[in-house]
Amino acid sequence: MTASHSQTEALFRGETEAGKLDHVIRAVDVHKVFRMGDSETRALAGVSLDVRRGEYLSIMGPSGSGKSTFFNMVGGLDKPTSGKVYIDQVDIAQLDPYELAWLRCRKVGYIFQTFNLIQVMSCIENVTLPMAFAGMDSEEARDKGLDILQRVGLGDRALHKPAEMSGGQQQRVAIARALANSPDILLADEPTGNLDLKTGEEIINLFSRLRDELGVTVITATHDLKMLKTSDRIVWIEDGLITRVSTPEEMQIEIGEVGGH
Amino acid sequence: MNQSIGTQRTLPLRRAVHIAVSGIRIRIGRSLVTVSGVVLGIAFLMSNLTGQIVKTAVSSERDARHKVDLMMSLVSAEMGPAGGRTLAVAAFGQVSDVERAFLARVVAAGPAAFRALGVAMQGLTPVTADALGDGASLLFVIGDAASAPASIGDLTRGMSARVVLDTVAGRAYAGGAAGPEVRRAPFFGQEAEQQEAEMAAAARQERFRITWIIAVSLMVTVVTVANALLMSVTERFREIGTMKCLGALSSFIRTLFLIESALIGMAGSVLGAITGAAFTLVIYGFTYRFGTVFGSTNYGWLLLAGGGAVVCGTLMAMAAAIYPARVASRMVPADALRSTV
Question: Would you list the domain boundaries of chain A?
Fold first, then answer.
């Protein structure tokens, strides 16, 4: 019992591997309260989590669990009511809007369930937009954009508009856009939610490959059990708290048990 | 503070314009509705301005013709038809267009001789002051009051009948003692001046009323455009949030909406100015005859009014965008992550 408890604690700190670990995200006792007039909603009630550099982390939880709030927090999209969130050792609560924009531009790549490509722009324009925000000149951005599109398997679709592509292809473009400024973190919110089984699996494998090739940290919020087996750790959030952190191996057993029942 | 965090810079304007243009193009239906709001407002403004310009031109031409008619009737009252007689004209200072038109009419009547001092025109014989009056039965004195001499006695020397018609009101004559008495008749009476003042007062009142109507219609345009842009912001909250996630500054979002609105305003006001002017010219063409309208309209003024209307429309559209742009720029990027609208 004691042994498993300390093992769980180690999991919370992301110390599944030996040696001193480089934490790209640290959340320390994060609380978040939303106020709407007189009513208060406690979305997060003291969440602590460390995420290793190069880790593939899945956040699971039912809707209304605080999963999305936590997810926004680690992506620098929202600030905690109390507690600290460090992205690359920087307390995001201390950042001004310009620094936050800078962080969102270069440190984090966002991927959405609904792809959120800018419909009026072609693939390459979508991918190079964050580069333009980062101040890169357009020639260089174009070369790099084509390179990234090649990497996600869409080298021949650069001039297509999002509306001319399938869901899986659009999500690949979105991933390419997220990679535009070589971020440390890829933040994906239900990336397979709008995709069929096969395409979803391809996207998951793409994340896995990008993690291996580029060393980027992948954090996904998901319901998709397919996502679990490629993850290094799975974090479960319920009622604003982390209820457990597990490895895919443990999950496999559980799912197996359920399946065998 | 960690050294690795930098400060986001603003995007070049060219890129923002490019994004704004494609934003308008993709939502062409909505954009056209917004544009048409500006078109209507500016067309109304331009049609009023054009009307003013055309009316001024037409009425000043009519006014001039009326004055020349008046002068001619005075001439025939004094001496009967001008044909076959010896006439003289002395001009001092600036000769007005009306006076020139009058002289042309007199020349057209076919006088035996028409001697002139200080004014050159076809049909007039330039002479010196000494020879001017010689044998003439009628002398016209024209030009502005400030340049006119106190005495025209010398000019009337040798005239067969000393009748002087003068456009300068209230001039006193001296030195015409010898020979037949100088009969003097001013061209325009006091009555005309009073009438003119009354008309000017009525015009001022009318101008005020029209200005007020135009102001209200432009305000309505601003509100319409603001409303359309506000809807467009709500429609695009996901796109705006996504851009913020990608590192767009709030100021960039604001700039984007201001540019878009300026472009809409410019397109709408160019279209509005052209349709407003064309419509009004045609309408006045039917009322006053096309020849008169197109011949007498001052196109320089018309162009200036058009330019003014375009600038006005563009600024109005930008003013209308201020509030929607602020709403857009304050949107929270996390909203874009929400999968349900």
Answer: 53-77+95-260
